[in-house]
Amino acid sequence: MIALAIATPAGADAQDSPYCRRVRAEAESRAFLMFSPRLAVQGLHVPLVGGTTGTGIVQGQEWQARAALSFSPMDMIRGAYVLDQASADCDRRIVGEEIQRALSIGTSYGRSHSLRAQLSYLQSQQPAIEQLLADAQAARDEQLITMHQLNDVRLRANAIARRMQSLEAEIERLDEDDADRGATERPLRAQLDDYEGRSIDLARAQSDLRRLNPWQINVSAGIVPLSTFDWFGAVELSYNLGGIAQQFAEDRAVEARADEIREASYEVRHEVERFEERMRTSTRDLRDALRLLDAQAELMDEQRDLLTRTSEETAEAQHSLRMVEMNRIELESDRVYRRTLLAEREAISGGDDDER
Q1: Is 194 in a helix, a strand, or coil?
Q2: DSSP string spanning 301-317?
Q3: What CA–CA distance (Å, rounded) separates 9 from 26?
Q4: pLDDT by residue (tens digit) across 165-194?
Q5: Which alpha helices (DSSP H) does 264-356 contain, by range?
Q6: Are 128 and 324 in contact (CB under 8 A)?
Q7: If 101 and its partner were Cys, which of 7, 113, 225, 284 is the partner (CB 3.0–4.6 Å)?
Q8: Which are the contacts of 152, defined by CB distance < 8 A and separation ≥ 6?
């Protein structure tokens, strides 16, 4: 398949896009807090054991200072999932932008390559054109044709030269547009499959993060500075029983997201399918145009064969043959352009079986 060569790949530059930098920085902002322990300092008022009116022995002090560290292994796991989710979001965004830039080309798709093929053909015909001009000039010098007839050949040669200049300018303009978009060699369908796969990866990453919500593990430890230092600690594991039902809901959410990506009218797949339909319409029009050009080429070949047989008899026939050759070069350049463009767009549309 001929590639859609007009979009930015998911390379280093795309990974460093403002969007990716933002989502990663936001994810790191959350993850840093989840990875790190929490430090707590307390000033605690406690009742004295025994008191001033009792007969017991007073222990401790009325005010106590405590310092503690606490962390949650589940939060550390959540932090890793948050970073994974940010990476999945960045990857999906990169491929989505790649497809949008590809689709933005619209009816210009394939023209740059086709114009290059047309220009290359015309450049290859320059020796033949120069020879036709030289023959016409020689015939005029021998007064076998009129000045008007010589100018006819010159005008056709000048028209071809202007056409080549126009092609070069159009190719340069399209190349500048492609440079703005970036360049890739990936077919559009490969981009679409990549985008949908990464969209599902993001949905799964978001679901995996939510699946951790029912679980909580807290570990804390600290010291109490009395007459001698003492320490305290606690480990707590908890589970929200709603997590059992949540697992089924998350499975349905991921499945629904996959259906949404394939079926929703606002998703990229429908834009790609509309683009492919435009390419199919274009390929049908190009085939019709090529049939007309092929018919003209056959008539021109017959005319050239007839003139070739009679050109040795009259200078007029030789002049007519030169004009036919000029016209044939222009006609063939149009056929080269349309054949190349047809091949480019058939790679997108898949072509029509009944036309092959």
Answers
A1: helix
A2: HHHHHHHHHHTTT-HHH
A3: 24
A4: 999 999 998 887 765 454 456 778 888 999
A5: 268-310, 315-349
A6: no
A7: 7
A8: 323
Collapse the DSSP code of 148 into the 3-class scheme (helix H, G, I; strand E, B; otherwise coil) and give the result.
helix
Show Cβ contacts of residue 151 under 8 Å, excluding neighbours closer than 6 positions: none
State the CB neighbour count (10 A cutoff) for residue 217. Answer: 16
Cα–Cα distance, 46 to 66 (Å, whole number): 12
Scored b (16 or more CB within 10 A) or e, 333-347 reads: bbbbbbbbbbbbbbb
Instruction: For residue 185, give the 3-state DSSP assignment.
Output: coil
Contact in structure between 132 and 153 (CB atoms under 8 Å): yes
Sequence ranges of the domains in the chain: 12-45+62-268
Beta bridge partners of 40: 68
Higher pLDDT residue, 113 or 180? 113
DSSP 70-85: EE-HHHHHHHHHHHHH
Buried b (16+ CB within 10 A) or exposed e, 30-60: ebeebbeeeeeeeeeeeeeeeeeeeeeeeee
Report pTM: 0.69
